[in-house]
Design brief:
The chain is of the alpha/beta class. The chain is 35% helix and 19% strand. The two termini are 17 Å apart. Its cofactor is Co(2+); a divalent metal cation; Fe(2+); Zn(2+).
């Protein structure tokens, strides 16, 4: 598995989501930020929009649930068309059960960690997951500045995966740009969510390829 780029539609034009998906045809995933105005102080979109978007694009949808009670809602996002569903460790009461339910429905199961949440307490359940999402900003809003203090956690997560021989992806979300992606790739990340960096570019597809190239070069060092 090589470097993967997942543009976040949080930075896209919500009135033209199908067109915005076409604008990043070179991407590996479309990242969908689901926010409930409870777990995070913002309200975005939910299951009906995911279902409609899944019908409008052949890109796999990477749904990041920044919501309370993901144990209840996560399986429904698979049914709506998500190929990967991420729940937050800080919000999930039964992460193993939830991950197994997501996988049983045919999607990849992922767990997200806020910047201040360490990876080490979750070492024993990593085998139940397909991906770890490390937030490099506080969740809730797009366009935030990348938090360098999260880079050591990326490295420690990669070391834990290597220690147990696990083939999980490490995804980074928050402030990813041409200026920040290399240090994350060097630390061991391989999936990169980029919102404003991609959709604010004159050519979103060209930016996807630029980010991929930078991460591939850095990851090979």
């Amino acid at each position: 598995m090589g470097i993967q780029i997942a543009p976040s539609i949080l930075s896209a034009d919500f009135a033209r989501l199908a067109d915005e998906a076409v604008a990043v045809s070179n991407a590996d995933w479309l990242h969908v930020d689901v926010m409930d105005n409870h777990f995070v102080p913002n309200l975005t979109l939910g299951m009906p929009v995911v279902e409609s978007l899944a019908k409008a694009t052949d890109k796999p949808l990477d749904c990041h649930l920044m919501i309370e009670d993901p144990d209840r809602w996560a399986p429904g996002y698979v049914e709506a068309g998500a190929s990967s569903v991420t729940f937050h460790a800080e919000a999930c009461r039964a992460p193993i059960r939830t991950a197994r339910e997501i996988r049983a429905k045919g999607a990849r199961a992922a767990m997200a960690l806020k910047p201040a949440t360490p990876i080490e307490p979750y070492e024993d359940l990593l085998s139940e997951l397909d991906m770890i999402l490390i937030m490099t900003v506080e969740p809730g809003f797009g366009g935030q500045k990348f938090l360098d203090v999260c880079v050591p956690k990326i490295r420690r997560t990669r070391e834990l995966l290597d220690k147990h021989g696990l083939d999980l992806w490490i995804e980074i979300d928050g402030g990813v740009s041409a200026e920040t992606i290399e240090r994350c790739a060097e630390a061991g990340a391989d999936v990169f969510v980029a919102g404003s960096a991609v959709y604010a570019a004159d050519d979103p597809n060209a930016m996807v390829e630029q980010l991929r190239g930078l991460a591939e070069q850095a990851g090979a060092r």
